[in-house]
Each structure stands twice: as structure tokens, then as C-alpha cells.
Amino acid sequence: MSRLSIQEALDLFNNAPLEDLSKMANHAKEWRHGKSVYWVNNRQINYTNVCVLHCSFCAFSRIKKDSPTAYSWTHETILQKAEEAILKGAKELHIVGGLHPDHSFSYYVEMLSKLRARFPSVNLKAFTAVELCYFAKITQRPLKDIVLELKEAGLDALPGGGAEILVQSVRDEICPDKETAEEWLNAHRTVHQAALHSNATMLFGHIESPEHRLEHMQMLRDLQDETNGFFAFIPLVFHPEKNSLGRRVGNITTPEDILRTVAISRLFLDNFPHIKAYWIQMGIPTALKALHAGASDLDGTILEEKITHAAGASSPIGMSASQIRELILNESLIPIERNAKYETFN
Ligand code: V47
Ligand code: SF4
């Protein structure tokens, strides 16, 4: 099948009956992965909610470090949280946080090297492109050096956060102070050139149009053509509570919109190995439907989710490994346990 253009994808997204679109995307998924669905025993570690930026959709961050709800974890707390997860079989730690004004780059390097020393085999999927750019800024060092030093300390992969919508005009409205689209893409390029893989997200369901979603995917598809460094695309469902963007636009996403977005991403991003149904944000029922509409990954057990729950998510904050396996089996699909590098354990 030839590659979809933005126009063709928009036509399908806007006009194809959901059932037909899902079937096409499921076919594309099964062509790659058959009935397999990947999942990871993981823990999210959000080491601080203090952040120098003020993205309009973020209910998690605190501007003032002395706010009663601001927190910042020591390395010891992070190690304890990691240990709890590893005792439950975690294969991945997903570590991201706000841009804390007082943390020096050594705080992050030591965090990884202490985790790596204590837990040699767990995958450290840490720091978004936005955090990497911030580290380069505070150290005045090239991004490439930052990535190589983090890799040396134990970094295994980069999560896909901070992409939001890569179309700059939308970005300028929802997160004007954040790294530009070009900077986000370039950080991932640098990570891929350092022989590390990463993921890519897209925050949708706010002021963006279907055209913007496809333009965002086009930028990712182009970079993937160049580097082949992305593992998964993760459509992130915007949650409107306790943030200014949410007060402006309300809750406009529907399960159908989520499934159409998953399906079109599977068809358009023909060079991405996986589309993730992030159940924390989609909710479990829609995430399970997404497994029949192009998604081949359910992400993980999570244990403790803060970013989406701060913005009103009603899903649980975590799941057990047996629950997640059971959910996949109940869909007549085959659960495949993986780590952040997509090494499998079945
Ligand atoms: O970067 C912030 C988004 C992201 C809201 O790479 C919001 O495997 C919805 O990136 N409503 C963090 N989303 C989550 C993330 C992620 C999750 C799971 C797996 C992976 C991966 C990455 O959440 C942030 C931001 O884009 N976010 N606020 C909100 N109100
Ligand atoms: Fe800070 Fe990330 Fe929240 Fe933006 S989304 S305010 S960068 S924590």
C-alpha cells in the first residue's frame, strides 16, 4: 500500500465510518504484530512538580517551590520508589518531572547513576526532550554532550512527552514558553544519533484541528524516516480539569475521536513500530477498543500517575501485572511483556 498523504488521511479521518477505519488500522497492526499486544511492568516516578514553565494545559506543576502542594523528591525517595516497583517485577522506570529552578544537572546524572548501581537491569526511560533542552540551557553545553553523559549514567530510552502539538502556531497558544517544535524534534534526533530510542506523544482534544494532528504526525514520520529511532507513538487525551486551557475549551474529546485518532495514526505513521493505547488517559474501556483499532501497546502497570490525575483522570492510578495481562487476554489478544527497549519476556 502506498503512503498516505495528509489529504488522504484527513479524508479517512473525517469521513470513513469508524468501523471501516478501525478495520483498516487493525489490519495494519496485525500485519506488524499479529494478535500480540505489548505491555510493560513499570513505575512512573515524577520527581518534582515544581516547574519554571506554565503550560496552559498542565494541572500538575507548581510555579512556587514553597507552595503547600509543591514537592521535590530526594534521590533516597526516588530509590525507595524504584525499589517498591522492582519488588513487584518492574522492568522500566519512567522518570519525568517539572523543570526545577534549583536542581543542577548533576542532580539528574546522579539520580540515574544511583538507580543504575542499585538496580542494574531495570530500564531507565527518563527525561523528556523538554527536560534535555533545559539541561543544555542551564549547563550551557551542547545537547549531544548532555545526552551522552546521561547515557553513560544509565539512560536507556527517552519518553515521548513534551511534544504537545508540534505545529508552532498551536504551540504558541498552549505553551508559548516551551521549547519550539524544531527544538523538540532536534532533541529526539540527537537522542537517536546517540543510539538510543525514544517515543513520541501528541496532546490532542483542545484547540487543535484534525489538520494540525496530521501535520504533527507528518513531522514525526519525516524524522523517523531519517533516524528510525522511535518505538511508539502515544496519542495523549487532553484532560481539562484544574488547568486554564481546560477552563477555556472544556471536555471536547469523545471515545470515537480517540479511536479515530489511534486508527489514523496507525495508518499514517507507517514507519512507527507501535501505537500505544495509554489506558491512564483513554480510560480502560476505550483503550481496550483501541487494541482493535491499530494500537499494539497498552503501556504499563504505572503504580502512581500524577500528571493526568491532577487534571481530572478517573482511571485508576495503576494496575497489577496480572490485571493488565487478563485485560488483554479477555480481548482474545496475546499479552507480550516488554521493557522500555521492547525486549520481550514471554
Ligand atoms: O508531557 C500534561 C501531557 C505528558 C496534561 O513515552 C497532559 O512511553 C493530558 O508523555 N491532559 C506526560 N495530558 C505523559 C507522557 C507519556 C505517558 C505515557 C507513556 C509515555 C512514553 C509518555 O502528559 C506531558 C504532557 O504532554 N499532559 N497535562 C493534561 N491536562
Ligand atoms: Fe512544566 Fe511539563 Fe507542566 Fe509544562 S507540562 S508546566 S513543562 S511540568
Features:
346 residues; alpha/beta; 46% helix; binds ligand V47; binds iron/sulfur cluster
Explained architecture:
With 346 residues, the chain is α/β, with parallel strands linked by helices. Helices cover 46% and strands 13% of the residues. The protein has 15 helices and 10 strands. It has helices spanning 6-15, 18-33, 75-87, 105-118, 129-139, 143-153, 168-174, 181-193, 210-227, 244-249, 255-268, 279-282, 284-290, 307-310, 321-330; strands at residues 36-40, 42-45, 92-95, 123-126, 157-158, 197-204, 230-237, 274-275, 297-300, 334-338. The model has no long low-confidence stretch (mean pLDDT 97). The structure holds ligand V47 and iron/sulfur cluster.
What's a concise summary of this model?
This protein is an alpha/beta fold and 346 residues long. Helix content is 46%, strand content 13%.
Write the layout of secondary structure elements.
Elements: H1 6-15, H2 18-33, E1 36-40, E2 42-45, H3 75-87, E3 92-95, H4 105-118, E4 123-126, H5 129-139, H6 143-153, E5 157-158, H7 168-174, H8 181-193, E6 197-204, H9 210-227, E7 230-237, H10 244-249, H11 255-268, E8 274-275, H12 279-282, H13 284-290, E9 297-300, H14 307-310, H15 321-330, E10 334-338
Parallel strand pairs: 1-9, 1-10, 2-3, 3-4, 5-6, 6-7, 7-8
The structure holds ligand V47 and iron/sulfur cluster.
Ligand V47 is lined by residues 57-59, 128, 159-162, 164, 199, 201, 203, 234, 236, 238-239, 243, 278, 281, 299, 307-308, 311.
